[in-house]
Amino acid sequence: MADKEGYLAKPSADCCLKGSLHQGEPRGRIETVAGVETYISTPQGKNNGNIILYFPDVWGFFNNGFLVMDGFADAGYTTIGLDYFRGDPVWKYRKDKNDPAPGFDYEAWKRKHTAVADEVTPKWVEAVKAQFGSPTTKYACVGYCFGAPYVCNELARDICAAGAFAHPAFLKEHHFRQLKKPLFLSCAETDHTFGTEARNTAVDILRNEKKTYNLQLFSGVEHGFALRCNLDSSYERYAKEESLRGIVQWFDLWLSQ
């Protein structure tokens, strides 16, 4: 069921400010592509020759996201993500681990960065294809939270063979109706942006319009589980790792067609 503004997956809220930072040393590099800072992680072993386009959550460029991109690279994909927040991620405005800083105008932040991301992302995708692709390269796309609508937008076009998102935000009915390519939904049972009714409505749309999709649903975790979970919890770690593994297997299937 959509809210009064037509959202099924609502805009990011204070729950998106919460989460744990993960330890590890990212191995990718940062370049500028189409005027946007871009993280590039290349496979260290097997390389299937294909590219994953990565659309970040509101935390933008941060250690957890880099490590997830490296995880996709470990599966054989060159993984390329953009900083559409231009160095102004939401984590800069946290008072502490779970609370926004006093005086932070989250609504203004979202309006500002959504407008920029809407403008730069399609140009960036084309630039990545021109700069890093070849005639035989196949593409997939993945988005977390804020990145979900950009996944759906790409799946309405012809570049990507498949896409996936985890704990999405900013999605309306048209994002699901416009899909031309397969979509993997990695979801938390408890999610303030994409609750049970909204999720069921989205699945009804996908089913009724005969879209190709797969729904992965975890109990016991919340919005942000695939990026910002508490790794000291064995179950939260499992859900995070299983989300990434499921997305990789989805891409392996559709990009092998």
Task: Characterise this structure.
43% of the residues are buried. The protein starts with 6 loop residues before the first strand and ends with a helix. It is globular, with a radius of gyration of 17 Å. The chain has helices at residues 63-74, 106-132, 148-155, 173-177, 196-208, 225-228, 234-255; strands at residues 7-9, 29-33, 36-41, 51-55, 78-82, 139-144, 160-166, 171-172, 183-190, 213-222. Helix content is 35%, strand content 22%. It has a single domain (7-255), classed as 3-Layer(aba) Sandwich (Rossmann fold). The protein is built from seven helices and ten strands. The mean pLDDT is 95. The chain has 257 residues and is α/β, with parallel strands linked by helices. The longest helix has 27 residues, at 106-132. It has an eight-stranded mixed β-sheet, with helices on both faces. A two-stranded antiparallel ribbon has the order 1-8. InterPro entries: AB_hydrolase_fold, Dienelactn_hydro. One of its GO terms (molecular function) is hydrolase activity. This is Dienelactone hydrolase domain-containing protein. Residues 37-252 form the Dienelactone hydrolase domain.
